[in-house]
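Many groups now describe folds with learned vocabularies. In that spirit, our science desk offers one protein's residues alongside their backbone shape tokens.
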Amino acid sequence: MHEHLNIAVFASGKGSNFKAILEAINAGRICNAKIVLVISNNSDAGALVTAREHHIPARHVSRKQFSTDDDFNAKLMSLLVGYRVNFIVLAGYMKKIDSKIVQSYKNRIINIHPALLPKFGGSGMYGIHVHEAVIASKENLSGASVHIVDEEYDRGPVVLQKTVAVDSTDTPESLAAKVLQLEHEIYPEAVRLFAEGRIKVIGKQVSIS
């Protein structure tokens, strides 16, 4: 029997992907998983409000509250250990996860990116900037990618991808809306596959059984 996922969600904003995953768990579409903690670097993040409404422990933890990176990361680790977290979902989290945490949760941290990685990933490629770059490059396809988080931005193995056509009339905003819908489909699906023990990561390769 594979282990039950105790998930921590890290979010900086409204956390619509967190909501999509939470709804899938509550509706029974994802079994063997529970969100046990939500962490945000913004005290007024919508994700914290949603967590509290659903009686999920919600913590505002920001680097600004600590004198050193080590103290900040130690606090995050103590929360993760305290809530027995064994899986981390990044839902619009705008900070880089420290390599110590990445190593402690190797192949157990996933992120969603609003483009078809490895294209349009890396430093500065977040939010509307991604969609602006896709349109500027005259791409005819974009989409969303769920990937494993490793030490490099947007470089970890891709777990799931879904594509959408980029129309000649699309603006960055209209493309963002289309891609967000895909995100809400494939992010819960990726969590479900992990919860069912169907994802194996060997080196940089992901296999789904």
